[in-house]
UniProtKB/TrEMBL annotation:
Organism of derivation: Leisingera methylohalidivorans DSM 14336
Organism classification: Bacteria, Pseudomonadati, Pseudomonadota, Alphaproteobacteria, Rhodobacterales
Keywords: Hydrolase, Phosphoprotein
SMART domains: PP2C_SIG (SM00331), REC (SM00448)
Top-rank lineage group of the source organism: Bacteria
GO molecular function, one term: phosphatase activity
Annotated Response regulatory domain residues: 20-136
PANTHER family: STAGE II SPORULATION PROTEIN E (PTHR43156:SF2), STAGE II SPORULATION PROTEIN E-RELATED (PTHR43156)
PROSITE patterns, per the entry: RESPONSE_REGULATORY
GO biological process terms, semicolon-separated: phosphorelay signal transduction system
Protein name (database record): Chemotaxis protein CheY
Length: 423
């Protein structure tokens, strides 16, 4: 029989250590020898005289360690090992094959079947004790890894649930943001204002819109809030209230006259009022660029303030293209700053394009940006006979054809197109 050892006093209750051992051998004498020693070493031992009986035991409860003879009638040790490893159970057991075989090809066959180690008969007490100790270390590491994987899986599952909740909220937020631009195209007499708004994510920091207090008077704008994501989107929602097309009493672009009707404020005044409001709000670090215009539909006179926004593009009916505007400082960046406006006259058939830098800073396949020159090329590809809405859709389509497919939209893309057709 195998001699007693110092393993008698070892604590086998440590998480991941070997506590329950299954001994499988058709020889009753060999089982007795192994079982006696294992019990003296403090292990709980279960016996099986065949591979079939061992499988039934494993189906009921997986042992921590299996000592199985290779040569047995019926299901031999190799077949038992394969069947054991083929179970759907995630519990892992350290498997040692007991064999008189020592040829390399036979050892390789055992390893391929799923065995972790081999012991050559007759079994040495010291070697068995050493192999069990090695198995304990490996089993402990395996179970620690399994536990960590379980924790990671649970964490990833929780993160997925949080992500799904955020994603659902962002989808709803996008619907709310889209409600700030209820109409993408509207006729004012024979003239038209059309809008384009393409966020690079669920929600964006661009805002476009139009307002009209009465016949022959309209205002329209293009705004780009600094940054991206939720914070910028919240700012656009706030600006949507400041420039509401439905509630003139809240609209900073309007002023009530003689308690009877509303009139459009001058663009430079609108920029100053918005700047004062943002500066007064402590804790807000965001600012925005803006191109804001008012137009007299009888005379074709357009007044514009450009606050750090890209220079608007004037598309003359005869095909001439001209960037206009004086630049200016973004709104909400510097306190008590003055804004100046520019005035020009549009002829019947002229168009005015206000756009965000999502166009000009779009990345191309070669890594460069589209730039204003590239925008001119895209505009020239769009049909001049198209309606305003079709023109914007076509312009955006041409942008998607030249921008980098790898990076896609890296910034929100938006535009406002005013088409003047006279009184």
């Amino acid at each position: 029989m195998l001699p007693e050892s110092s393993m008698d006093n070892e604590d086998h209750t440590v998480a991941g250590s070997i506590r329950r051992v299954l001994v499988v051998d058709d020889s009753r004498l060999q089982r007795r020898i192994l079982v006696a020693s294992l019990k003296k070493w403090g292990f709980e031992v279960v016996e099986a005289e065949s591979g079939e009986a061992a499988m039934e035991i494993c189906q009921a409860e997986t042992p921590d360690l299996i000592l199985s003879d290779w040569m047995m009638p019926g299901m031999n040790g190799l077949e038992f090992c394969r069947a054991f490893r083929a179970r759907s159970s995630e519990d892992y057991a350290y498997f040692i094959l007991l064999t008189s075989k020592s040829e390399k090809n036979e050892v390789a066959e055992g390893l391929d079947a799923g065995a972790d180690d081999f012991l050559t008969k007759p079994v040495s007490s010291d070697e068995l004790r050493a192999r069990i100790s090695a198995g304990e270390r490996i089993l402990r590491m395996q179970r620690e890894l399994s536990e960590k994987n379980r924790i990671v899986s649970e964490t990833l599952g929780e993160l997925q649930r949080v992500y799904d909740a955020i994603d659902k909220d962002l989808i709803q937020a996008r619907k709310i943001q889209e409600s700030l631009v209820p109409e993408l195209s509207k006729d004012f007499g024979s003239s038209t204002v059309s809008l384009l708004l393409k966020p690079c994510g669920h929600i964006g920091g661009d805002l476009v819109g139009m307002i009209s207090p009465g016949v022959n008077r309209i205002g329209f704008y293009s705004i780009d809030v600094s940054g991206h994501g939720i914070t910028s989107a919240m700012m656009t929602a706030r600006l949507g209230g400041y420039l509401s097309s439905n509630y003139f009493d809240q609209n900073v672009g309007m002023e009530k006259r003689f308690n009877r009707f509303y009139a459009l404020r001058q663009p430079e005044e609108v920029a100053s009022l918005l700047n004062a409001r943002l500066i007064a709000d402590t804790g807000i670090e965001e600012y925005f660029t803006m191109a804001y215009c008012i137009a007299d539909l009888r005379s074709g006179v357009v007044k514009i303030v450009q606050a750090g926004h890209p220079h608007p593009l004037l598309l003359r009916k005869n095909g001439d293209l001209e960037f206009i505007g004086k630049g200016g400082v973004p709104v909400g960046l510097v306190p008590d700053i003055g804004y100046s406006q520019e005035e020009f006259v549009m002829e019947r058939g002229d168009r005015l394009l206000l756009f965000s830098d999502g166009f000009t800073e779009a990345r191309l396949e070669d890594g460069s940006m589209l730039e204003p020159e590239g925008l001119l090329e895209l505009v020239q590809k769009c049909g001049s006979e198209q309606s305003s809405k079709e023109f914007l859709d076509d312009l955006y389509w041409h942008l998607t054809q030249v921008m980098s497919k790898e990076h896609g939209l890296e910034d929100d893309v938006s535009a406002t197109l005013f088409e003047y057709q006279g009184p």
